[in-house]
Amino acid sequence: MPEILLVIASDPFAVRAALGQILDDPCMADLRSDLRARAEIVLAEVLNNVVEHAYADGPGEIILHLRCVQGGVICRIRDFGRAMPGLALPGGAAIGPDPVELPEGGFGWHLIRCLTEDLQYCRRDSRNELSFRLPETARAH
């Protein structure tokens, strides 16, 4: 199966460049447009979270491994930054009915949870590892 393996600097500009490279890769270019769009949203959220939180104290590397499989894309993201609080995934706030009253931020994990399947996090040997599957067909919410 086609795969993508990238090492990305923990920098917002490097993340933006990597997202462009990922979406242009033949592995992703042949996917349905809605799956590509969901992949871009989820990967942008996850990678930017690593930059902002795991590497808040300084630079580091993000290792991204994508595998295009029948039925979607399997993703694994590893870093050596700070662990998730409580060594667990955040719950993710649901989006309320009045957008004017929304706080800035905090909805990324809700999006990630809605757009992925088999979402898992572990901390092993000073390394964070997040894995998930982007299904070919979006789930109804």
UniProtKB/TrEMBL annotation:
One of its GO terms (molecular function) is protein serine/threonine kinase activity. Keywords: Kinase, Serine/threonine-protein kinase, Transferase. Residues 29-133 form the Histidine kinase/HSP90-like ATPase domain. Signal peptide: none annotated. This is ATPase. It comes from Gemmobacter lanyuensis.
